[in-house]
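Sample intake sheet
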Amino acid sequence: MRTRRPHFFCLCLGFLALLARGVLADGPIPGSRIVKSFDFEEIKLGNFEATPMFWSKVTGRGFPAYSAGAFDHTVFHSGENGGNTSFKMRTVGGSVAYRYDPPPANRIPVAPNSDYYIIAFARTDKLEHARADLAAWFTDDKGQLLLDTETHSQPYKAGDDASTNDAWQVLYIHLPTPPETGDGPPQPRFLAIQAGLLQPQQQAENTNPLGRFALYQQDIEGSAWFDDIVIFQLPRIGITVHKQATSPAPAGMFGGGEKIDLDMLVSDVRNRSLPGTAAASAPSSAPSNAPASAPAAPGSPLLVRLKLAAADGTPVDATEFQANARLDEPWTHRYTHSPLPGGLYTATMEVFDPSAASSPLVANRQVQFLCLPAATETAHPLSPEFGVDVTRWNHSATWQDLPSLAIQTGAGLLQLPAWRGEMDDEALTRRDAPLDALLATLQRRNIRTLAAFSELPGPIAAQMNPESRTSLLALNNADPKIWQSAISFPLTRYVNRIDFWQLGSPDDPFSGLLPDSGDPRTAPATAPATPDRAQIPIVEQSATLYGKLSGPMMSLLPQPGLMIPWNALFEFHPEQFPHAELDLRIPAVVKPAQIPAYLGNFQNAGRPLFVQLDGLPANESRRADRLADFAERLVYSRSAKTPPDAVLYPARPGKPDELLLVYRTMIHALGQSNYVGEITPGPGMHAFLFEKPGDSSIVIWSDAAGETALDLPLGSDPRSTDLLGNPRALAIDPATQLTHLNVTSTPQVIENVDPRPLQLTASFALASSRLPAGVGSIHDEVLLSNPYPEQLAGTLRLSLPPHWTADPDNFPISLSPGSNVRLPLELSYPFSETAGVKHVTGQLHLDPGNPSGQNKFDLSAPVSVGSDLIEMEAFCFVQEDGDILLQQVITNTSSTPLNAQAYALVPGFPREQRYVVGLAPHQTTIKRYTFSPSEYIAPPGIKKTGLGLATLLAGQVATLGVRQSDGQVLLTKAVPLE
């Protein structure tokens, strides 16, 4: 579902002026750009029904019959046309919508290469969760919705102020037609519109990460009125990315060092001074950045302003042109800019009419494109453990870019659609010419392939129930004669040319719950409601489909094995899918550091495991956070104990995304490498070391905000790149040969690293990485390894956290080539040491002439303090009146009942304690504490008020703990007082 947000609201103001003058009362005006209007004054047309002519109620799941719409003669948008009618929609639960669904003679035709703008006046009452919504689609020549063109207005409800209930809000949609093409998707022929009152589950802006598994609130009473819906045909103004035939980059991208070419077009634009033209409805107020000049004479050229900006908003270039555009001769211009660094860029084209004094803006357009970073001297071979999922490229007209997409990213695997909606009988059962040509090219490039039966082809879908045409699960109830030959043909023809086969789409995993069957976007507006099947587990339907198709499919393969898509949030049972291999989708709700654990849960007896990683939604996260998060996901995937056979990036045609550049950067750094280990240069630091022949890499970042200066032994010529692949200089201290880094929360990639110094520092650890809370003293060992082919000798000195001691705390070191050492020590720490990760640091001083070339190494090893008997979570809340509320959640993780004392300490207050009596294994109890300002023992000169107390305690911590009845501390935690 797509929602466009163009900057056309100022243009809409001019259209409203036409409405205010009543010019829309009688429908389209000769010579104007109005192609259709709905004022709902239909009594004069002989319509005495309760609803408008040709408007049909949308039915299906979420659109109950008891919520409906009707004409309203008491509330209407007041204009000078004398109208007294609006279209009211009322909900008593669920959503309600009506779609303009006329017979062929009354459909709204669209002109190719034109843009359409739709406005409607809306008013709402008593809405909290639901919203008024205007939607539009293009349709094909049979009136079928082209779902990819679905566009929604901004959702609307009146504000909390009751006075706004009487206000009318303008809803608006911009819907450009795609250019005419000889092949590819069906071309738009008509326009369909829909007005509705939508609950949260049906709203276009719904981006709940739980998707169809989310729970939603809804209104059980409320209304929305619609009036004066107007459809305009706008001038065609466009800006597109121009690609040279010799460019190595795919469409929408420019190669490293390649100049930027943008094609601009202005056609069918007439000057404001001409009567009855589109310019006559230009906006009444100019934007603040409009050209500040006196009005030009009628017929003067239009002014075109082009602005180029980077993804973070930094301006790159701005220029202006004069455009002499006529109906019979559009103005075109190719803008060229010198090569840009790697990144995502936005070009904004604004067109002004200088002959209009107060409102010169005609329209604006935007286009985004990716620039690949400059090529390095080192060639990067294709990495088979990385791939690009292009199953969404289900129109073969876009396939010419796929080989270059793989080559430019370094991915050695492409996931292709074996079934596509555009296929005809010839491609299904005799010869799939586009796939033949693509596979031939990929084989020459040594690019592996995974072919997925991910979408029902048109000839098969035409024989299905219309309500289930969009899902492969429809094959469960279909006659096998419909699909058998279409399954066996590609398997037999391409069995020796395609490496892996998959049944199902990554966008529709074989896990979770069955999708809603009554989708109002795909069902006809007058279709009867379908039964509620949302609680039927989809895994049962998927297992049935797998059982029906997997046998015939695997009988044609050289060895049994068929891949299926699976959501990592759901448990997989191999017995339901014999011989299945997993294409595992890991949603963004899974944190990056959790990915290795998820991968471990889905390892399947050595069978191939592919992984698709979802990035954070662009509209819900900061750009820097989104890039950093995706890079971390890739690092954790490749550093898992058993990494996946391939990590796939889900590419979407025509949608440039910076995550593709991050993916490319990480392929070059981690491709065809082995994970060595994680280094901890300091508290909160993460550095992952990957080694490959002749070149090793580290990816490093910090959990702390801001920059942290760090000096590391990285070798004589390390190379750094940012996440977009742009190189950055590194400073090496000539005296120490250490490389200076400024580490931030954004991962950075360091390549051409000498791994041995890092392997030496990474080998430093304590044998016991987890220390039992409340014990106070344990016997442990210090671990160290020599990665060099020569002996290392020197001294190791330990530095411990406050109040910790070690005996001994320094050791003589003598390590043979490739050997390991375990140095015994007694480690003591406070009985009340708070739980969490601590860092034991040290300095390794090596004798002169050692093979590393360095005399000193700074070492750091994380060690956690925790309990095997209990788990505890602690929470703090300081109220406005000064009360401090603490909550302690205690879980008994032992095998015997727990009897203990829970306590809380806050600076300046008496100790409080609670008793835990007979807490059964694996049970949880909650203890709460309240500290009132009246109990605070104030230091001299401090006033005992809530405000003074909050100020005094700012930055301090509360201590919560659990102590056994015999006095042994089980666990202690510190919680900030905030």
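Comment: The chain has six domains: 9-234, 237-371, 383-672, 675-732+742-758, 779-823+839-864, 870-976. The first strand starts at residue 34 and ends at 38.
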